[in-house]
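Figure caption, in words: inputs first, then the predicted bound structure.
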Amino acid sequence: MSADGLLPSAHPGPQGARRGTVDAERGGRSEPALLQVAGLVKRFGALVATDGVSLQVSPGEIHALIGPTGAGKTTLAAQLSGHLRPDAGRVIFAGADVTTLSTHRCVARGLARSILITRLFKSFSVRENLAPSVQARSGSSLAFWRLVAAETALAEEADAPLLRLGIAHQVDALASALSHSEQRVLEIGLALATRPRLLLGEPMAGVGPGESQRLVALIDSLRHEVAILLVEHDMDAVFRLADCITVLVNGTVVASGPPASIRQDPQVIAAYLGDDLGSSLRGGPSAGAGDG
Ligand SMILES: Nc1ncnc2c1ncn2[C@@H]1O[C@H](COP(=O)(O)OP(=O)(O)OP(=O)(O)O)[C@@H](O)[C@H]1O
Ligand SMILES: [Mg+2]
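Bound structure (magnesium ion present):
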């Protein structure tokens, strides 16, 4: 286990633990990407939700995926995690082709997307909620999580993320008793319990401004340890957190790069012009918090 007891040696965050990786990748392309997406296409009838999307996430990088409503962000995330099968294109994770792998197999390889959708079992305790994630990491789809939770070793393993996330005192509380943001924190815990190398999700979706601060701080604290592909509408959060931003419009990537270049990209500004996101991108009140 790592010093904080969260990320075990099985996935030592090999590259991700080194901050320099992202810069090295951007500058000299010296280290291979952890996630490589090439030409991903998903059609819903006549609608092309993702239209040849390519992007790369480096080890340890916080990569934000942004774009207007209906741009294809959720559809892309669902393809990356194995929830939706692409019609064309490839997804390479840690050097292996995972394009057609099921969600379970993605998780077993260290690609966790569980913060995208709420999947807490509200009438179960916090620890019982975590047990299947621990189980999933071992490659099994065993669903008898109460039994799993009763196994001491697995239960202890499930507790480690809770300590880190600051909800260890609620381990026996029902998930339904947690606040909205605590439930989101627990969802991140579910993902972390699978010992991911890449977290994929929309953790701040539906969370109020005050509560999202806690989640931003939590995600920031995971920097260096795990790569994160963050689907996010909140530009404050994006510009505070992201090492790299990919902008999707109508299923197509219009820009990808560090926050400073995204903010000045004419196509991005055009895509967001006239709304709040545009003001953030152009350097509105909250912009620029973290891209220095
Ligand atoms: N299961 C589906 N069947 C048909 N159309 C779909 C389906 N899922 C998504 N779409 C359509 O695909 C397009 C992309 O949707 P998607 O939800 O991926 O966008 P998004 O960028 O996540 O949007 P938002 O910012 O609103 O969350 C939209 O036009 C949407 O209506
Ligand atoms: Mg969406």
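Confidence is low (pLDDT under 50) at residues 1-28, 140-146, 285-292.
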